[in-house]
Amino acid sequence: MLSREQSQGVVPYEQCDPYAWFSQRAWVEIDLAALSDNVQQLLSKLSVGTQLMAVVKADAYGHGAVTVAQTAIAAGANWLGVATVPEGIQLREAGIKSPILVLGATYTPEQIHAIAHWNLQPTLCSPKQALVFADTLEDIHYTAPLSVHIKLDTGMSRLGTSWQQAAEFVQLVQRLPRLQIASVYSHLATADSEDQTIMRRQQQRFQEAIAQIASLGIEVPCLHLANSAATLSDENLHYDMVRAGLLVYGLYPANHLRSAIALKPVMQVKARVTQVKTIARGDGVSYGHQFIAPREMTIAVVGIGYADGVPRNLSQKMQVLIHGQFVPQIGTITMDQLMIDISTLPHVQEGDIVTILGQEGDKCISADDWAHQLKTISWEILCGFKHRLPRVAIM
């Protein structure tokens, strides 16, 4: 893999503009060494015998699913989690052979046929869905048992059969031909909260459901409940596997969990200065003239905007890093460009690199910073960077 310096001429690695790195107005850097280290750090925190699923849905939270999946598996992850059948197919087409769990609901014959063909493992959320799977597999003469995962709703009120009906549901699936239960799992709604009341209630419900299943003499090969936050909260939530998403990408699901593990952010967002100009006192900047120059100023236009994933609501609230210094963004962020005040930096010129998210020296701008300003979550920030920004792999 190329070093950071060598990567300056590398062609971006996934579904990207074929132009070289040096020609881009803006791009996303993916630090694969940090990704690998995060996976290894996670593995070191798991209970003995617990496997790690790296969740790579939504194009690996905007990081590039294929390269992230390959790196995570090489670093020791055992499973991959996706949301949709096409996401799983993308990984299979790239030659990835690790087990892939489709976390979302699938129910059409076309989806089921694709799952069987591409050796994906679906989530079953209801008896009706299980029956559709069994009938469809019979129709297409699928003879090998298809590994399926039973989803229980223990309090998320999203996908899954009610935990009170777990034994009945598992018993039905076990009787159906061509289906083989690979795991039973649920999802926690409040694992990132310091108040663990709801999380413990869900854990207790999960335990009761498992006990109901065991009372029928049914042995489930794998149990999993923990997301990223729960993985760090309590090893008693690890069971046979944990499903880690945000942690793999070097961010924390909650501030109070930061001391539990040392992670490195994987994504940085960079752009280039496209013009430097002087504006007079009283000049307005950008749409609506929301910023009026209080004095003569030197500003730089930067080639990135809200169509690339920089939220327009950050207008005049964000800073960027250039020449190792924080400078403010001014005026309204536009579709393809934003403006910054470089009056204190006389040597900035066209082509200089601006760090939109990431680190320069001891200074850092994180997805958490943006999320805090926008009153949202870092997951949304990471997933927001569009694919007209090439992903550039660095080590």
Keyphrases for this structure?
single chain; alpha/beta; TIM Barrel; Lyase, Ornithine Decarboxylase, Chain A, domain 1; 2 domains; nine-stranded mixed β-sheet; elongated
Would you kindly provide a written description of the structure presented here, covering whatever features stand out?
This protein is of the alpha/beta class. The strands form three sheets. Strands 1, 11, 14, 15, 16, 17, 18, 19 and 20 form a nine-stranded mixed β-sheet that branches. Strands 2, 3, 4, 5, 6, 7, 8, 9 and 10 form a nine-stranded parallel β-sheet that branches. The chain has two domains: 46-260, Alpha-Beta Barrel (TIM Barrel), CATH 3.20.20.10; 267-394, Lyase, Ornithine Decarboxylase, Chain A, domain 1, CATH 2.40.37.10. The chain has helices spanning 32-45, 57-62, 65-75, 85-93, 109-117, 127-139, 166-175, 197-215, 228-233, 367-374, 378-383; strands at 26-31, 51-55, 79-82, 100-105, 121-124, 146-153, 161-162, 179-186, 223-224, 241-244, 267-279, 284-285, 291-292, 297-302, 319-322, 325-330, 338-341, 353-360, 363-365, 391-394. Helix 1 crosses helix 3 (65-75) and helix 5 crosses helix 6 (127-139). Helices cover 28% and strands 26% of the residues.
